[in-house]
Amino acid sequence: MDSLFQDFAQANNTLNGYLLATTISPVPPHSDPARLYNFSRSANSYSIQTDLRYKLQYNPDIQLDRKEANAWLEVYTAFYSFVGTLLAAEETQNAGRAREADWARVYDGWKEVVNALLKGYQSSMFAVWTIPCLYTAGRYLRVFAIKADESIASQRDSGLAFGGIQEEDAFNPDSKHEKLEDAARQINRIFALCTSDRAPLEQSRKWALYYTATLLFKTYFKLNSISLCKVILRSLRAAADSDMPPLAAFPKAHQVSFKYYSAVIHFLEEDYVTAEALLTDAWEQCLRTTNGASKNLELILTYLIPTRLLTAHKLPSKALLAPYPRLAALFDPITSSIRAADLTAFNAAMEAGEEEFVKRRIYLTLERGRDIILRNVFRKVFIAGGFEGAKEANGGDGTPTAASGSATPLVRRTRVPVNEFAAALQLAGAEVGDGEGGVDGDEVECLIANAMYKNLMKGYIARERGIVVLSKAGAFPGTGV
Amino acid sequence: MMGAAPAYTAVPARHTLQQPPPPPSAAQPPKVTWSPAVRLYVQRAFEQDNAIPGIDQKAMQDKLKVIITEAAESGRLEMIDWRTYPLPQHMIKQEREQAALYGAQNAVVTNMNAALPPTYDGAYSPPPQNQRKRKSPDTQMTLAEELDTTPPWKKNQITHGLEDRISGKSKAQSKKQKKIENMRLNAELSNADALQRRRQRFGHTPEPSPYLSSHEDSPAPTGPVVGTCETLEKNYFRLTAPPAPHTVRPLRILEQALDLVRKKWKNDHNYTYACDQLKSMRQDLTVQRIKTEFTVKVYEAHARIALEMGDLGEYNQCQTQLRALYKSHLGGKPEEFVAYRILYYIYTRNRTDLNDVLADLTPADKQKPGVQHALRVRSALAAGNYHKFFRLYDEAPFMGPYLLDMFINRERLAAMAAICKAYKPDISVHFLAKELSFYGEEDQDGTSDADAGARQCLDFLCQHGGEHLVERKETDVRFLCGKAGALFENARAAAFRGVDIKGQI
Fold this sequence. Notes:
By secondary structure, chain A is mostly helical. Helices cover 63% and strands 2% of the residues of chain A.
């Protein structure tokens, strides 16, 4: 108990919120790994209130207002009983009986700590420098809720929980996240506590907003309720209009994670332009850190690559992916098939990676890489068609000669028979067969029409003549031909 | 749903007329008897300093009226310590916060709204009745209720009012006064917190989940009902209390009932009747907790009929249940309904849900022809491959066409937008009709007349303002699509803008 309150005193005297947060952390500091155990042993549930009051109110190192001391007393009382449940659960787990560890109780115990904290803030007992405590509070709500849900599920599966497999489950498929749903509500309370703070900026709890918002995003993602994230984004936007510090004034860590999550939300809404801007920002900020936030960089790339594929038709280089073997394994088959304009390989890669892509919610975006492949196939046909006039001179091999080049500026052959596109598509593995060994010309035209509609290709189809007339200047925008 | 939640929403009988201020009646004590304490309280309520922004005078006055009339009616006028009794505006505020607390998901929004001018008036009423009751049971209880349910804490502390219990400490007047002021200063959130503590004392869970709140006050579940009803037909009636066994049909009767409903549906095609009957069957199954292959059959039957009639509300309810039922492997036709689900999300264009469906599919699911068809529809549309999409439309299995019909027009417009941009200068209407799957009415012998399709296609073009671009050339009718780009681009954008989602859970 002593080391804990030494830190508490020091934190209070130096207004160090992060140090203060370690005193209510469920993870003991490195310097004092036995802290929780000692804290639990140093008192019993009968005397804890008195002991704590003594530490908080009559401690010469700590000068606290009586009411504030009372508020902390509640926090640490709750923390004391929480530590009891936590140590019990950890012990059971370490004894090899992981299934019996009561993480649900740990979660409930932690919730009490959070409640006591929130109460202190609600009655304005705790100054703004203490908000790292709210970070710890929210963060572990989520951690313990996930653990609790997992243990409830595994108990249920093994029939340990009362009544074995509950029949109600069939009608209530969401019950497996019961605690996490509750955690989302609790974190939302923290969020509300911060948005509703009307104190002047320098004393405002609004400084905790982005951190809390990120926690909520994480939780909602896990719960698969992305739509709720939009509510949070909207209220942040509303807060930003009134009196909110600019995002850039927040700690870097808050900025990066917030940008990442809001980018992913925009990504899922198909707002790729916003997503790209946010991801690029986050990427650059991450790169500038010295401790190599490689996990974050990897996460950012997971969304930045499909985004860039869509917005700029750009593929990641081997060098970019080299430090991230997992990402390389995920994206390499896709990118190389797009580069080779090989639809068969692309389809195989999409199928092979489907599970992972769907899990990361990038499948539906990556799929649109098909457009780029088709564009590349059409472009190859166009290039293979060679140049007007040069054709006769060179026996149709398409290579311009110096002689013909000097006379008139070279013009590519812009009238391409649909048949040539059809053949190329078949070679590339497109499923344009008519089911009887032939080619479905209408489908080929449809694919061409689509490429034109999406501005990947300029020109028009003259159906009656069976040719495609391509634009003389920049038939394939952005590709140099 | 909680533990063994009953299949009805408990609606407690109204104990009290808690809402609008009761009309002056003979039962009310004569007006002259207001004590000085009460008059002071009223004065305090009107003081400018005590006003809370966001709560207007009118709301406050109404509440004040309710408080005093109720106190008078229950004879507590003299018992209440009016000096410390919470002011009406504080009560209103509490109630609003309470409401905010309940919609935990919406909490943030509510907070945002705090800055906006209030839209509440005095008659503010959160939807479920029992929520409101939980808020301030002591101020709103009638005399009769109070007599037999006054809990011990109330008997002891009735004179100390709300604040005293919030601070939960000293009873000395001076100290108390201070506390109250303190509390008012930072009233906003501590109230909510105090209320939460109070609710705990009432034995409620500290944070009622918004999903569960409607069940919270329902009486302890009594276990499944075993029906004894022998009648085949039964009208649907929304339960508000556990059903009597003689009104519930047992499985064997329900099985006959399903056959009957199916037969009648085939003969009369009366949707109102069929829907009503199927709903009552679903209810009987739920209250008896029957979860067998037959349950699946009932939901499937209802989903199909609803789909046929375009009743998306009922259809979605059934789909939600079916999804859960299929997870318990009770049989039925998961292939068919998984395919419907995919098609439905294509219709609503909900990418998140679509992604989830894809995540749910097992390799075995993907091998089933019905599911494969739906997946091919999805990928054709994702690629903008209208040609393939319309071919798939022609060969949709099960009741797929009903779902596809919901968005076929939208996709026709999308295809037209692409065609108009790509084909120049004009195009045969016969070709368009074929590409866009216009076949006209099929003849009895199954052959369709090509001109009928072209006529339908022309109708479609004209509907969207393309009549001036239709030309007759020799033997063919041509559409000047080169000039219709903007026309169909706008129509396409409008068609994709909004999808009305009904009853989606």
